[in-house]
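#onboarding

Welcome to the new folks! Below is a worked example of what a typical request in this channel looks like: someone posts a single protein sequence, and someone else replies with the predicted structure as tokens. Don't worry about understanding the tokens yet, we'll cover that in week two.

Example request:
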Amino acid sequence: MKNITCIDDLRQVARRRVPRAFFDYAESGSYAEETLRANRADLERIKLRQRVLVDVDKRDTSTTILGEKVSLPIALAPVGLCGMQHGDGEILACRAAQAAGIPFTLSTMSICSIEDVAESVRKPFWFQLYVIRDRGFMKALIQRAAAAKCSALVLTVDLQVLGQRHRDIKNGMTVPPELRLKNIIDIATKPAWALSVLRGKKKTFGNLAGHVKGMENVNSLAQWTAQQFDPTLNWKDIEWVKSLWPGKLILKGIMDADDAKTAAKTGADALICSNHGGRQLDGAASSISMLPKIVDAVGSDIEVLFDGGIRSGQDVERALALGARGCMVGRAYIYGLGAYGQEGVAKAIEIIRKELDVTMALTGVRKISEIDGRVLVDASVAPRFKPKRRAAAKKKKR
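Example response:
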């Protein structure tokens, strides 16, 4: 990997090594992919303020997220089907994250199950949960996550219906892959991928198969969501989840200041400003454009994390300058996983760490707590509220 210098290098390798259906699954957005593109374009428009003749020796990229000490202000986001990017992908990504000192979030739609990951790693991880029609199964998932000692529950609140992803339909994306001629030819040209998946613990949705009545042989994400995701989802469901979950709760998918205020009143520990990576409402605003508004709306009542388009350490500093306590990284680590497995995920994390470290130096800061609107050319885009990142956000009385 000596010639890998940035996340896009990992992307190019993953594109060659992972079958098209699964690469496109991770890569694509919904409909015309306007919001997917906006996530990146709006981040790139935010210009950093270069400073000189400032003592930036002994820099420190560590901080806290939900009271946990982390080596970097990032966490690996929940991404479905990691085990179809590389065999045992969820386990490998979790190991890389834990070795780097950052959280890993396991998706409900993972290939390796909660139990598979828990028995293969040494530390607790986060678990992402959808609100689904089968409340009995949902309750069982929460209990399984608690039994696995997951340290936080990430409740996704923006997927009550599925935004159409054209590439998944055109590719006939299923798990395992459909036996179409083009899929067979594609896989035949990627023997290393095929071998890794064959050696993996699971070949289908590990958290679902055998647990849900009528879904014993589910292999289509679209089939699952059409039958199980619940369009009646509302704020009362948060109360129900909190009554079952004993640990820290994070609400993922907040893109509106009024929703953020309501989220803060639920007693959740954090919210994630996220438009689902441009995979749900196409035409929605970019996550980064809404971040300052959400930070100002909630103040110190709840921690705010950011998700949507992070590909570099520069992007991480941009999000922190606009008020995020930390960033969720999705596609960036998935490219590493598809390219080189666990080593690729570790490489993606290290690339972002080094870029953040250099960016901090060149913008005149030594600690994460020093990053705010002053590192931006246009400080007016930053929120009025300035969160204290070293201490946990003030909690509401419950």
